Amino acid sequence: MRLFRRWWPMLLVSACAAVTAPVASAATGAAPNPDAAGALVRRYVDAVIAGDLAGAAASWSPAYLAASRSLAIVYPDAPVPWDMASPLLLQLELLRAGVDSLACGVPEIQGDCAFVAVAPIAEPAAAPYRYAVVLEEGRPVLANALWAATRGWPVRTSRYFRFLCRDPGLLAPAAVASLDTFVDATLQRFGVGESRRAHLAAAKIPYVLADEATVADLTGYATKGMGDLAAGMIVSSHFPHYHEAAHLLVNYALEAAPLHPLPSLQEGLASLLGGRWGQSPAVILHMAWANAEMGFADVGDILTRGGFQGAAGGPNAAYPAAALLCDTIVAAAGWPAVLELQRTLAEGPGPGRDPNAIAAAIGRACRWPSARPLAALTAACEERRMRYRRAGVAPGGDIDAAEVGRDGGVALRRVGDDLVFTAPAADGMTALLPARSAGADGTRSPLFAELFPARAYAGETAGVRCSAHSISVYDFTTNRLVGVWVGDFAGEGGGAADGPDRLRFRVRADLLPGLADVPWVVVAP
After folding, report:
1. Is the pLDDT of residue 211 over 70?
2. pTM attached to this predicted model
């Protein structure tokens, strides 16, 4: 998330990349004078360092300030909450002590905005932070760069969101509905009352949706998506981006949210609720099982901020372990407890607590024995982990389920809670799609296009890619992997083979809703 760029850049990007130029906004008028824009940013920086917060606030766009407060989330530790991701705020004490200073770049005009980059001189490798300057009633005023660049974009609304999107094909109605459902379910888990849910429905979360290149231009990072807490906005090329929505919903439920929650709880809770980068929560928890089997990040290793950032295997190990941690807490103490731990275990940029102190706080919330809190937490997580050996998919199945599969086609039969597939084996990967779909409606599935680049999307809601060694189940409505089995992880390398030329496997029926009675076909992967 954007706020935590200084403490952990991997929260923002999959791989560090050069900062790109800001994307031009949909121009709503004249651009400010570059010299005036640069002078305004320098005056603002000086005012904040001098402690003149009233004067600093007067430099900002009233329209942006109102927008940034619309979700009614308070950050008590942020002296200037509408600008809390800037190095100006993150390094304020160093700047006031004269240990560091900020360099202001040359203003760049894009559309009706002037963008001015600032960067700490003592950290030459740090990515610059960009301010926007816009004209309101003829007066140059400061604004958040993401808000300013997208404020003229086309808008569509749903129950809880205000989508700023230039390409309506990205806004599939079923995906929009699933995101609203996710918000309702998450807020109810946290015990957020009806009146506050109604407030969010009225205020609406701004969600900027664009292709990856545009998201990189808007954020300055090669990222699929991120949350900008200062502006209270989500920007993403992935839709629906449940993970980033979860971050905002956690803070909305807290109402008064910490600036620096413990990463293992912050990212673990968002991953448990919303998955991560195209992987469902069930898949993330299965990854926690698989990573532990291979000796990657243990829950005890990622409790602290430093441990989380330095986890063996990187974020692909740390996030699943953190999700398992939060899942274990929820199972023992409930959703409100893990939400409150976000606040009570928050910490600043100093050394932080040691793992035993963190485990003791979690143990008190879960009412576990306190003599060896880290051991108790580790044991509870290990016991919980064993639930996730499967992620809704398994090799094999009822031998009588689908004998018609012998003719080279796909056969499917419902057996209890599972759908048993029999499909031909290919030299590489066999790809399966339902033969009937909703039909093209002008919307697209980026995940479908990625998996089937030579095939036109016709509204397919799901698909399967399978071999003797791995099976993946995809939801094209929500653009994510929802079920997976990998033989090497499970110790079942050839488990899906049913003879030399057939595959047989089981998929939990709820991963393929409405498709139990639909014919499936083999297509070119």
Report:
1. yes
2. 0.90
